[in-house]
């Protein structure tokens, strides 16, 4: 019984908070198994020993917000056989895509003492806006169970089990009493599964960390929120968070006129 | 007591006998599951004593709305169907079916042992009894018997409770499943509250039920008890929050596959799948294969699925039911029409859960009525032409 060849793994950071990369380091129980199954060739957050590409699998965290990063992602793609984006930033542009709704020049002059030192793009865009992506792993942050599932699937050459249906299905499987029907607005019906419906299990509405589900009917959900008493501003803010630039959430936030 | 109990025998219990019932079931090795208040709802969960029961609460249900309110009369069972049915205990949301292990010369497969606790369900309503009977047919009849389900099912003791109050979304009368439990229980109870006395009329449904009732302190019934119980059930039948006209419904729906109403409901439907998850008869599952990081072991897992997901209708190359209209139509016509072709009865028992727990309050009875109404208009105009 021979062990499989160890694919070479690289982890890349773009505009992000590092939280998703940390999910990998946070895989305490599985970390040794991960290290045994793949060769960690380039993961600065974990090891200073960095070896050159090409890589069998690249995990990309973060969005593209600078001209330099727009160049860098092309090189990462060239060096990678499989490219998997991890998290809301890499997959949808992240919370920093709020700049897409405003004038980034104004932000810069308000925040920095020397605005002329800052070179940034007017928008924050997902990796898929720049290069072809093989798989997108949602979440802010990603779910470590899903990350392990993707790694083991790629290693086995099988399709990963990453469901694109609503959070509600996970919520019902875990036997949570629906908070929305009890009067608390929840984004779960329009949100991509993956977290295991954590927030409703703590009696909170879903915040939409995993972005739009496969067939999001955001208009019907927003209408129901209105019936529950949510203001247009609350609706805009809810759709305009970590996944504000994801098409369905962006459009719904814009439909409420702020 | 010297009386002999058989199926159909009746007796009167004091409200204290509920505690004796729970204790007797526990002594026989049953884990007792019953109604209790959790997270602002009356859910079915483990109970240790009659003190866990939701005395003092009633539910308020409507399309997409649920809440609890206090009640003064101390009824233990003064509420209707809960957020989820008994389905999750007989047909769990996730089960590992088998696992495989690599060996030096191939691999071995081992079937997952089903651990079969003895479960006692306390407070099963008539609609849910009917739903259990429907799932029994789905899982145990025909060539592909689900042994895990059958094993769990054989270990269940059922104490039914006849409804003394219908919920705002109930329509068991339309589906002829309630509000009285006629069959499928070991013991059934009707809660009798007349201001001064709090009692239960118990009816035996099986030998096991007869043996249990004989153990409990009980009194003979009088005509007054029987009349009171009948009156309660009659009254509940008059309180139905919803109504579904089932006359010719199967043919009507099957002839309305291109009806504009499907597009209309799809504008409100979130394709979230809640209706299928809470439905006590919905049985669909998907399977997933998982492999370990080292590649030496694998598991095959079955999970609740829903006809509202795209993967549900995925065949090579893509999903067949890409529109929300097609998915809602699949769900509703399966429940009310093609289920009859498949299993001989509708797949709906009128529990109302899909109405209450739909986040946008889509109401299966309203949708069916809308299709019928427009069909009538069409017939009239056809006839008048
Ligand atoms: S609480 Fe939210 S996620 Fe859970 S079922 Fe209700 S709407 Fe869906
Ligand atoms: S279709 Fe709705 S009312 Fe009918 S059994 Fe299912 S959940 Fe209950
Ligand atoms: S549908 Fe009928 S049997 Fe079911 S809870 Fe309502 S009244 Fe009781
Ligand atoms: S009918 Fe309601 S519960 Fe069912 S999928 Fe549509 S929105 Fe969700």
CATH architecture of the largest domain in chain A: 3-Layer(aba) Sandwich
What name does CATH use for the topology of the largest domain in chain A?
Answer: Rossmann fold
Number of helices of chain A: 11
Largest sheet of chain B: 7 strands, mixed
- The helix content of chain B, as a percent range, equals 25-40%
The total domain count of chain B is: 2
End-to-end Cα distance of chain A, whole Å, is 62 Å
Q: What is Rg of chain B?
A: 23 Å
Structural domain tally of chain A: 2
**Widest sheet, order of strands of chain A:** 2-1-3-4-5
Percent of sequence in beta strands of chain A: 5-15%
Summarize the structure.
Chain A is α/β, with parallel strands linked by helices and 258 residues long.
Structural features, described:
The complex is a heterodimer of chains A (258) and B (385). Chain A has 258 residues and is an alpha/beta fold. Chain A folds into two domains: 8-156, NADH:ubiquinone oxidoreductase-like, 20kDa subunit (Rossmann fold, 3-Layer(aba) Sandwich); 167-254, no CATH class. Chain A contains eleven helices and five strands. In chain A, strand 3 (55-61), helix 3 and strand 4 (80-86) form a beta-alpha-beta unit. In chain A, helix 10 (232-239) runs antiparallel to helix 11 (247-255). The N and C termini of chain A lie far apart (62 Å). The model of chain A has no long low-confidence stretch (mean pLDDT 94). Chain B has 385 residues and is of the alpha+beta class. Chain B has two domains: 10-93 and 115-237, no CATH class; 249-282 and 307-384, no CATH class. Helix content of chain B is 34%, strand content 24%. Chain B has 13 helices and 15 strands. In chain B, the strands form four sheets. Chain B has a seven-stranded mixed β-sheet with strand order 1-11-10-9-8-2-3, sandwiched between helices. In chain B, strands 7-6-13-12 form a four-stranded antiparallel β-sheet, with no helix packed on it. In chain B, a hairpin with a 4-residue loop joins strand 10 (187-193) and strand 11. In chain B, helix 9 crosses helix 11 (324-343). The model of chain B has no long low-confidence stretch (mean pLDDT 94). Chains A and B meet through helix 2, helix 6, helix 7 and helix 9 of A and strand 5, strand 6, helix 10 and strand 12 of B. One iron/sulfur cluster sits between chains A (167-168, 171-172, 176, 178-180, 186, 188-189, 197, 200, 206) and B (272, 274, 359). Residues 269-275, 308, 358-360, 362 of chain B line the site of one iron/sulfur cluster.
């Amino acid at each position: 019984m021979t062990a499989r060849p160890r694919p070479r793994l690289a982890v890349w950071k773009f505009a992000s908070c590092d939280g998703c990369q940390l999910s990998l380091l946070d895989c305490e129980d599985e970390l040794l198994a991960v290290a045994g199954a793949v060769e960690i060739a380039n993961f600065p957050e974990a090891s200073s020993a960095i070896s050159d590409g090409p890589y069998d699998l690249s995990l990309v965290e973060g969005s593209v917000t600078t001209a330099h990063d727009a160049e860098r992602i092309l090189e990462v793609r060239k060096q990678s056989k499989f490219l998997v984006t991890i998290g809301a930033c890499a997959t949808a542009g992240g919370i920093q895509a709020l700049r897409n709704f405003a004038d980034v020049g104004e932000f810069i002059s308000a925040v920095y003492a020397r605005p002329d030192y800052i070179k940034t793009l007017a928008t924050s865009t997902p990796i898929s806006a720049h290069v072809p992506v093989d798989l997108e792993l949602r979440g802010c942050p990603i779910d470590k169970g899903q990350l392990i599932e993707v790694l083991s699937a790629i290693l086995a050459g099988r399709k990963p089990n990453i469901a694109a249906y609503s959070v509600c299905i996970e919520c019902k499987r875990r036997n949570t009493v629906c908070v929305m029907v009890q009067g608390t607005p929840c984004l779960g019906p329009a949100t991509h599964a993956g977290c295991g419906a954590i927030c409703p299990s703590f009696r909170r509405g879903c915040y939409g960390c995993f972005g739009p589900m496969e067939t999001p009917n955001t208009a019907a959900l927003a209408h129901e929120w209105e019936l529950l008493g949510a203001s247009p501003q609350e609706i805009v803010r809810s759709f305009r968070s970590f996944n504000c630039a994801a098409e369905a959430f962006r459009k719904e936030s814009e439909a409420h006129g702020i | 007591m010297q009386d002999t109990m058989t199926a159909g025998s009746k007796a009167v219990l004091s409200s204290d006998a509920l505690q004796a019932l729970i204790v007797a079931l526990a002594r026989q090795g049953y884990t007792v599951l019953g109604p209790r208040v959790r997270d602002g709802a009356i859910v079915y969960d483990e109970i240790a004593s009659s003190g866990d029961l939701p005395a003092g609460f009633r539910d308020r249900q409507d399309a997409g709305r649920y809440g609890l309110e206090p009640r003064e009369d101390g009824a233990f069972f003064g509420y209707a169907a809960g957020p989820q049915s008994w389905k999750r205990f007989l047909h769990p949301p996730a089960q590992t079916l088998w696992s495989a292990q690599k060996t030096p010369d191939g691999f071995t497969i081992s079937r997952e042992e089903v651990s079969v606790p003895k479960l006692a369900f306390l407070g099963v309503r008539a609609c849910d009894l009917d739903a259990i009977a429907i799932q029994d047919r789905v899982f145990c009849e025909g060539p592909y018997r689900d042994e895990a389900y059958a094993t769990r099912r054989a270990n269940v003791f059922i104490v039914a409770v006849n409804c003394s109050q219908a919920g705002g979304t109930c329509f068991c009368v339309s589906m002829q499943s309630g509000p009285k439990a006629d069959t499928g229980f070991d013991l059934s109870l009707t809660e009798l509250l007349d201001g001064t006395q709090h009692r239960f009329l118990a009816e035996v449904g099986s030998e096991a039920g007869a043996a249990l009732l004989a153990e409990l302190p009980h009194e003979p019934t009088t005509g007054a008890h029987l009349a009171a119980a009948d009156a309660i059930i009659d009254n509940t039948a008059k309180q139905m929050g919803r109504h579904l006209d089932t006359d010719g419904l199967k043919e009507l729906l099957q002839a309305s596959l291109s009806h504009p109403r499907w597009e209309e409901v799809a504008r409100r439907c979130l394709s979230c799948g809640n209706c299928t998850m809470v439905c006590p008869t919905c049985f669909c599952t998907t399977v997933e294969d998982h492999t370990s990081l080292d590649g030496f072991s694998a598991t095959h897992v079955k999970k609740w699925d829903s006809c509202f997901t795209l993967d549900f209708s995925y065949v090579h190359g893509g999903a067949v039911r890409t529109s929300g209209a097609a998915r809602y139509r699949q769900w509703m016509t399966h429940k009310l029409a093609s289920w009859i072709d498949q299993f001989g009865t509708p797949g709906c028992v009128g529990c109302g859960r899909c109405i209450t727990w739909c986040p946008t309050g889509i109401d299966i009875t309203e949708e069916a009525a809308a299709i019928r109404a427009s069909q009538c208009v069409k017939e009239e105009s056809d006839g008048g032409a």
